[in-house]
Amino acid sequence: MQINYPINPDWTTDELIDVVEFYNVVAQANEGGVEREVFLDAYRTFKQIVTSKSEEKQLNTVHDEQTGYSTYRTVQAAMKSSNKRIKL
């Protein structure tokens, strides 16, 4: 599947890589599972880059429409779970 990741032109290369990595772990959680701590670390890094809740919602909407995954539900599942792995 070809995905056009939502990006902000003001991000550095490292920030862009971190955002794409977060969306990759969202996909992993929905496709086959991912370690919960790996997911949460990627989300924390993502939140350091995307600090605005409205920007996060906009980016996630674009991503979710392209992939069919719910970024919000994936994050909520990871936060509420006590399992080592998350899989939706």
List key phrases describing it:
single chain; 88 residues; 4 helices
Q: Brief overview, please?
A:
The protein is built from four helices and two strands, in the order H-E-H-H-H-E. It is mainly alpha-helical. The protein has a two-stranded antiparallel ribbon.
Low-confidence parts lasting 5 or more residues at pLDDT below 50? none
Range of helix content: 55-70%
Which structural class best describes the helix and strand composition? mainly alpha
The major pleated sheet works out as:
2 strands, antiparallel
Mean of all residue-level pLDDT scores: 94
Could you give the order of the helices and strands? HEHHHE
Strand share of the residues? under 5%
What distance separates the N and C termini? 19 Å
Radius of gyration: 12 Å
Tally of extended strands? 2
Report strand order across the widest sheet.
Answer: 1-2
**Alpha plus pi helix count:** 4
Gross geometry: globular
Helix and strand layout, with pairings?
Blueprint: H1 13-31, E1 34-35, H2 36-49, H3 53-67, H4 71-80, E2 85-86
Helix pairs in contact: 1-2
Give structural notes.
By secondary structure, the protein is mainly α. 66% of the residues lie in helices and 5% in strands. The chain has a two-stranded antiparallel ribbon with strand order 1-2. Helix 1 runs antiparallel to helix 2. The longest helix is centred in the N-terminal third of the chain and has 19 residues, at 13-31. The radius of gyration is 12 Å and the shape is globular. The model has no long low-confidence stretch (mean pLDDT 94).
